[in-house]
Structures are given as C-alpha cells and as structure tokens.
Amino acid sequence: MKKAWKVSGIMLTLLFIGMLALAFDIQPVKAEPRTIIVPDDYPTIQEAINAANLGDTVSVKNGTYCEHVVVNKSISLIGENPTTTIIDGGETGSVVCLRANNIKISGFTIRNSGTLDWDSGVYVSPFDWNTGAYVSRSSGNNISFNIVTNNKNGIFIHKSSKNTLTNNVVNANWLYGVHLWDTSNDTLTDNVVSNNYDGIIIELCSNAILRNNTASGNVYNFGVGGVELSHFVHDIDASNKVEGKSIQYLVDRKDIVIDSSWDVGYLCLVNSTNVTVKDLTLTVRNWHGIKFAYTKNSRIENVTISRTSYAIDFSYSFNNTIINNNILNQMGIRLHDSNGNAIINNSISNTWHAISFYSSNNNTITNNYINNNRYGIWSYDSSDNKIYHNNFVENIQQAYDSSIECPEYPPSINIWNDGYPSGGNYWSDYTGIDDYSGPYQNGTGSDGIGDTPYGIDINNQDRYPLMNPWGDVKPPVADASSNQSVDDQLGQYYGYTPEFPTCTSIILMLTMLTVAIVIYKRRPFKTRL
To answer: Does residue 522 surpass a pLDDT of 60?
Structure first.
C-alpha cells in the first residue's frame, strides 16, 4: 500500500510540474545572434566560421587573408570594404565554397583560385569535383557587393536555387564570369561582368530573373543553353546590357516585328510564333546573335551578324525562314533538333561551320553563297535535308558528315540537287567536264551540268553539279572590324588555330554533353524548390 501511494505521489508531482510549465510557458533559452570579428576574436576567417552558430555574423576587418573558406552553416560573412578586405586562394582550389543554405557573403575581393576547370572564386555546388562525391546542397544564398577577379571561374552555381547575386563586380576571370548550371529561381541584379572569357552564362536552368546587369569586354558576353523548354523560360528584361546594348529576351511572343527601331545587343525568342526579325546589324560578341528556342513559323531577314559564336542558332524550332542575311567572322547557322526550316539566299563567310545540322531533318538550303569557311556544311545525324542551288566557294572542306570519321554515329543522308534540269550546287573544286546533257548525262551537247557527280562522302553526292555559279553571285559584305582569315580570327578567339576535329575530339565533345545531360536527368537531389 505504501508503495502504491509513493508511485501516485510521484505521478502527481510530475503532473503538477507539467501544469506549471504550461502556465508560465517555460521555454529553453535561445542564444541571440552574435558578431565574431576577424582577426580580433579569431585570426582566420575559417576559424571564425567554425566557431559561429546559426544566424551569427562573421565580420572581417581590412586585410589580405590567404586561405580557402568553406561556409557550412547559415551565417553572414561580411567584409569591411570590398576593395581592401581580400580572400586570396593562392592559385589553388576554389576560394570560397558555400555548403549550407541561406548564407550571406558580402564586401570582399575574392581572388586567385586554382586553374582546374571547376575552380572558382565563389563555388556553390553539392558536387565535389576533386573527390567525385556529393556534399551538402546550398540554396537561398545572398552574394553581394563583392569583387571577384583572377579566378578560373568567377561565381559558379550548380544544382542550387533561389540565390541572389547583387552588385558584384566580376572581372578578369579565365573562364566564366557568372555561370549558372542546372539551377532554378536565381536572381541577378546590378552586377558588372567584364573581361572574362564568357560573361553571364545560364545553362540547364529555369526561372532566372535578371535586372540591370552589364556585360562587356568578355570574349562572349551572354548566352543561354538548354534542352527542355523550361531551360529557356527566364525573366530577362531589356535593362540588361551587353556592350551597352539591350538583351532582348522574349518569351511567349507572337505576331510582332523586331527591326532596327529596337535596341538589340542579343536576341532570343522562346516559345514564340509568327515573329519577324529584320534589318538589324548585330556585332556584339555573345554565344548567339539570334537564338530561337521552341519557336515556329517565324522569319529572320536582312540581318548582318558578325563576331558572335553562333550567328543564328535554332533549338527545337520548326518551319522558320532565314533569308537574305550576311554572316561573317564566327560560327554561322546551326540547327539543333530543328526541322522544316528554310535557309535561303544568305551570304556566309569566314566561319568555322557555315551551316551545321545536329539531329535536324527535312530542312531546305538553297541559293546561299558559302565562301571561305572551314566547313561549308557540317552534319550530325541529320537526313532528308534538301540542299541545292548553293555556291560553295573555296571552303576548306565543302561538306562534311561526322559519321565519316566516327562510323558509330548514324550517317546523314541528304538530297544535294533539285533534279534535272534544275540541277544541284556549284562547287569551286569540282573538276568534271560538261560534254553531255540529259538526266543521265549521256545526251548530245553540254547543258551547264557536270557529266559526273560531285562526291561528298560514301552516302552523299551531288548528282547534277553546276559548272558555273548559281544566280546572281553575292560576295559577302566585308567586316570592317577585321581583314583576317578564318584561321586568324579563330586563333584570336581561342588563343590558337584549331585543326580539323578528329573522331576522338568529336567523341569527347559529345561525351561531355551526354554527361551534362545525364547529371541533369539523374538529379540525386531535388533541383527545383
């Protein structure tokens, strides 16, 4: 009996204490955020971060701090002055790595990363390229009022979301200035990106917001790349500038005309219909002069484009017309998974690929002047394109299909003439004669068509090569900015004169693209929040 009373007393006591706790709302003491000062409290930034708790601020006084910083908790890292508070990576590794959510880093010069392709001034990624392992994901960060310079990459953000980049100066980095890769819902505002190889590049991302950013002096100032429609859907308005001209990034537009009354430094049309682009001169170095993504029934005419990487680039775009344009001094026209387009009466000179097809079929290429390029036509897995009445003049290789050197690739089999007597194309290196006539070239008398086919490769030939240039030959308008040959120009851009791509180099390029897509598709962590 006494034991029972004892147990009951204990239970009553516990119940009474519980009621008191509820009555007085007793809660554990929560530590207030504190400020840790470097070097007063700790001599290095990393030691201060290690000692910090969630929500703390690490305040760093002026000075040069030769260290690599890993921020692995939600804190604020604030420099006293961005020009005099310096984190120096000593030319090894990434200088600042973010490996937690909701980090703020502001007020630093961040410089001298290593030279590996993934080394960066600010590195935000769950993937450790050095070990091949996934580490902590980092999202919701604020990177602002920093100077990021002399790194392999300036700011690299991968598999992350909801980051804000504001008022950063990103200059003189060896590869990318700002590179977003497979991210979502990031915001870039008032950043100045200059004198890098690539300026602001957005790849495999969705829903980026860009306002009032400027890119200048980069080899290529701006570019967007992707596979799915969502990779091209961004909110990028005309307040963003490349070499002082506006980025025109238009989504879901129809029935509009873009002409010389528009301020255009870069033009991209996404998921758009019945748009006419005409009477523009585009000379700003970007990934593209004009980019169509998931766009159809539109037209590009009377545009002069020079100095970009690709002059006109189509991704998943159908039934468009490219007509009466002048293209010089860069890659020419590329169709990627784009069918039913017409390329008519263009002058394309001094490029690496004048016209290239990647998995693109049933396009028509006619009446173009294709002169002094590395490749007149370059194709990969692209068939049933009709190519006729073009002038192929003094290209190093008039036409090339990747399956010739890489037989594991599917061959491109295209149509290189318009039948008899309309004929095929003019080839400046054709050595045949014209003694006969008729569809089998066995009739009496000449007819302006070579008696023997022009051989392109084992799968392709022009059955009716023209003995003289087709139509009114239109030599290209000279580029006032350069009198260099195509090799000299490419050497200027790339730092060397490229050789013909070998099978190995093509395999390597496609393997890298495949790995990027596989990484995106597998996504072991959720990308979009």
So the answer is: no
